[in-house]
Amino acid sequence: MINHDLTEGNVTKSLLYFAAPMILGNLLQQCYNIADTWVVGKFVGAQALAAVGSSYALMTFLFSADRIVHGRRRSFFLLYR
């Protein structure tokens, strides 16, 4: 495992290094949403496309809430290990 000290060196490089996995995850999630919208719009119809479009914000919120819960649980166990 690579250890990278975020408190030393170039701040911009450290922030980009730290944020890269989250940025990549968001880009992949956006690609999934684009593909889902294209397939539903092409093969299912307008009402289904409206449902996909309206559910995107809800799904993004739920995934973010899930990440927050798992992160807090992990930090709790590390703190009281």
Tell me what the structure shows:
- This protein has about 80 residues and is mostly helical.
- About 85% of the residues lie in helices and about 0% in strands.
Helix and strand arrangement:
Blueprint: H1 11-43, H2 46-79
Helix pairs in contact: 1-2
- Cα gyration radius (Å): 18 Å
**How would a crystallographer describe the biggest sheet?**
none
Share of helix among residues?
over 70%
Distance between the termini: 21 Å
Q: Quaternary state, please?
A: single chain
Structure class: mainly alpha
Poorly predicted segments: none
Order of helices and strands: HH
**Helical stretch count?**
2
SS elements, strand count: 0
Beta-strand residue fraction: under 5%
Instruction: Assign an overall shape.
Output: elongated
Averaged pLDDT = 77
List keywords for this structure.
81 residues; mainly alpha; 2 helices
Summarize the structure.
This protein is mostly helical. 83% of the residues lie in helices and 0% in strands.
